[in-house]
Amino acid sequence: MSPPMGDSHKRFLQTMMSNGIISASQAAALHKHCCEIHGAHYVADRLDDFINIINAHLQSLFMHIRKGMSEEDGLEYYALVNVTETDITRMASDYADNELELFRKTMDLIVDSESGSASSTDILNCADSLQTKKLKKKETEHVLNKFVQDKWLNEKDGEYTLSVRCIVEMEQYMRTIYQDLIKVCHVCHNIALQCQMCENPICGIKVHLPCVARYFRARSDPRCPECGDFWPHEIPEIQQSQSQSSQNLPSSSKENTAPTPSRRSRRS
Amino acid sequence: MSQRKRAVTASQSKTKRRSQVSLDEDDEDANFSQITSSQVQRAREHFTTDQLDRKVAEVVQFILIKDQKKIPIRRADIGKHVIKEYKAIYSEIINRVCRKFDQVFGLKLVEIDPKNHIYILINKLEPVNGEPVSMRPGNPKTGLLFVILSVIFMKGGVIKENLVWNTLKKLRVDPGEKHDEFGDVKKVVTDEFVRQKYLEYVKIPHTEPVEYEFRWGLRAEKEVSKLKLLEFVGELFDQDPQSWTQQFREASAAETSS
Fold this sequence. Notes:
Number of strands of chain A: 10
Region (Disordered) (chain B): 1-35
Pfam family, one (chain B): MAGE
Largest sheet of chain B: 3 strands, antiparallel
Structural class of chain A: alpha+beta
Protein name (chain B): Necdin-like 2
Number of helices of chain B: 12
Mean pLDDT of chain B: 82
Domain MAGE (chain B): 52-251
InterPro entries (chain B): MAGE, MAGE_WH1, MAGE_WH2, MHD_dom
CATH class of the domain at 36-123 in chain B: Mainly Alpha
CATH superfamily of the domain at 36-123 in chain B: MAGE homology domain, winged helix WH1 motif
Radius of gyration of chain B: 22 Å
Helix content of chain B: 55-70%
Largest interface: A-B, 46 and 48 residues
Distance between the termini of chain A: 35 Å
Order of helices and strands of chain A: HEHHEEHEHHEEHEEEEHH
Strand content of chain B: 5-15%
Shape of chain B: elongated
Oligomer: heterodimer
Largest sheet of chain A: 3 strands, antiparallel
CATH topology of the domain at 36-123 in chain B: Arc Repressor Mutant, subunit A
Low-confidence stretches of chain B: 1-26
CATH superfamily of the largest domain in chain A: Winged helix-like DNA-binding domain superfamily/Winged helix DNA-binding domain
Distance between the termini of chain B: 47 Å
Strand order of the largest sheet of chain B: 1-3-2
Structural class of chain B: alpha+beta
CATH architecture of the largest domain in chain A: Orthogonal Bundle
Order of helices and strands of chain B: HHHHEHHEEHEHEEHEEHHH
């Protein structure tokens, strides 16, 4: 039997439920906060033990708090995921049928692409051919915005990529649907979409950009970790940005001044 | 067998009677009261522990998803969409569901309407200041709702709708115009908040032209602390909350009874 959950665990879980995903630095701060509020024993570097207690109780409910790495900045995140319906149906309660179809098409485009991204033009084009119900250009833009807001997609300069949340939550679904099209990173073994690829045709392994940065950090003569061929790509810098930890500040500081009517409104 | 037949016909006639009286469309719901102890016994033997666990998980997820949108949950819907052939052991399942909500999530499933069997989820964890990650990330409509609940409470629990619209206009939220953040304000207030049971919006009898009034809804009564609301209003007006004697008395009474 796993130890029972205290109020500190419950508060942590509720916050995960309303946010869907939080960065590792947020998780660390939240761990401290939850323990302090409820007078629970707090050990700074025992976040994973703390989460394991929650996960032991979530198991029978087919939910899980899972760690994942962002393909963009290499930072770690924690996401609350559903273990049974790894299918897109997880999003079904929040989106209409044609919106879900648009999401699937976007995912197809991204998985098929070499860059691990899809341009807004390509997505808008395929919105014309939706089987469920066509979306106008304006509507498509609106839906794409919603996907970004709900943290399923990332957008930068008109290019859309799958977010950490999406990859962590839908990993199993993606492996089933795309099978061989899905490659994993040679370094971290997670699904690799935005990455560099070995140009040796019989090797062709993929490595995430942040993993490339870390792996080749101290090597002057970068070679493929698998076949030993020269690694012809530019080696990115290791990013140390921790800016995510402040992203929730505006809303929470606003709310803290007032006792809010709703004590809880999840991801609305 | 004959006994079963009788149970079925009895339940049917009862449903008919019910639907005539309350125009209740769901036959589903009436069936719940028709379950005999032998049926329960048989069902319990029929399903394995794994199957039961899975059902409990499904009901928990169903309720969590509904609650995300703050839609009150009808027992009949749980029966129709999730419980299905497990109906005979409904109460056993729902007891375990309640235990999960309590032990894992710090939430409480509350029946707000015992006649029609409607539930909502209430948070048992107090909101606190200085969260590093918000437990309820910015829903802008919350602010709108809070203003309305405050006005209603300070005005003695029931107000005419015009007062609400005028108050909002003073805050530059015009119910006649499309708002950037809230969209159709009138619809949000009189439809969404009402459906979520935060507000009641009812016709005032014998008014010509027809007028409406607002009250607190059942969810607001269960979820919102009147004492904290009063403290907030006090800060706003730079006044001691106790100086509103009647409101303070009501707020304190509500606090001790919950």
